[in-house]
Amino acid sequence: MSIPSIAIVILNWNGQHYLQQFLPAVVRSNYGNLKVVVADNGSTDDSVAFLQQHFPEVTVIRFEENHGFAKGYNLALEQVTADYYLLLNSDVQVTGHFLDPLVNLLEANPSIAACQPKILSFHHPHYFEYAGAAGGWMDHFGYPFAKGRVFDFSETDEGQYDDAALVFWASGAALFIRSKVFHEVGGFDPYFFAHQEEIDLCWRIQLAGHQISSCPQSVVYHVGGGTLPKGNSLKTYLNFRNNHIMLFKNLYGWRKYYVMVVRALLDAISAFKSLLAGDSGYFVAVASAHLSFIKWILKDQRKSVFPNPYSHRDKKRRPEGLLKKNIAWLHFVKGKKKFSEIVDKEVKISR
């Protein structure tokens, strides 16, 4: 009996040092039907030469320019055939047999289209890592958070989120997904370039009738911030712009406009608060993001990937991992730091 095929696909941009450090463990992954692909996004360092010399068994897809995370992966995956894709950041340390729990979860649950391992911090291994932790959620107004990480607060991993459960989104740092579903829903939105594209993808996957899950039996360690470090103005701009585009695309009816208006007000409060605190860069990034969102509405919507227009017909279907509250209020005003203090009920997966 053959086992499902997996393609681990790493999108690289000037990351030779990460490839040198973390790729050996990826290549040694203990799975019987595996290929490893590195898609190089127009690197100007020696990444490609390094791969050709030291990892001839790795398939290299080379682009002449940096297409960003979203379009780069879309272009690469058009050239990769496998039952499952694992989209893996170049700065992730994998562990032995980490693929088996991911495959077993999806093979046993046909309704689940994508999942993620438990992601811990490479530099602080007992803490959850910012980019996804143990699975992503989203609040009523589009603010993403995760099991083990709420805004900038990361919890210590004490096994508190070791049950597989349905989530809203799986982290793009280590996204395990059925290849068929990835292509059926149109892949990542290339307009996003980078940041929040995996949340948008997972939302469209749920609207298409599938589910997203965590898989904490699989564990990886993520460095994080390798391309755009935390606090970077471009990162702030992309996060705010893409979040608004995502809300506009995937919400429907009166709720869309209610949420968009409230979010604009909340963003304005956050931007002016930062300006008064002397952080003009954050203020400019948020303001620019809102202007770009307006430009997208007026001119660039055709460049994005939308959910199927029939997705909203079943209005009883509500995405899992969606909090009907304002996470900012609960965290900053009510003082709730941990995911377990904010979410009291999850849909767990029986194994």
Structure notes:
This protein has 351 residues and is an alpha/beta fold. It has eleven helices and 13 strands. The strands form three sheets. It has an eight-stranded mixed beta sheet with strand order 3-2-1-4-11-6-12-5, with helices on both faces. A three-stranded mixed beta sheet has the order 8-7-13, with no helix packed on it. Strands 9-10 form a two-stranded antiparallel sheet. Strand 2 (34-41), helix 2 and strand 3 (59-63) form a beta-alpha-beta unit. The model has no long low-confidence stretch (mean pLDDT 94).
Summarize the structure.
The chain has 351 residues and is of the alpha/beta class.
Q: Going across the major beta sheet, what is the strand order? A: 3-2-1-4-11-6-12-5
Q: What best-fitting shape do the alpha-carbon axes yield?
A: globular
The overall strand count is 13
- In helices, the fraction of residues equals 25-40%
- Radius of gyration (CA) equals 19 Å
Q: Report mean pLDDT, rounded to a whole number.
A: 94
Terminal-residue CA separation: 22 Å
H and E string:
EHEHEHEEHEEEEEEHHEHHHEHH
Beta-sheet strand percentage? Answer: 15-25%
Number of helical elements: 11
GO molecular function, one term: glycosyltransferase activity
Protein name: Glycosyl transferase family 2
Domain Glycosyltransferase 2-like: 8-117
Pfam family, one: Glycos_transf_2
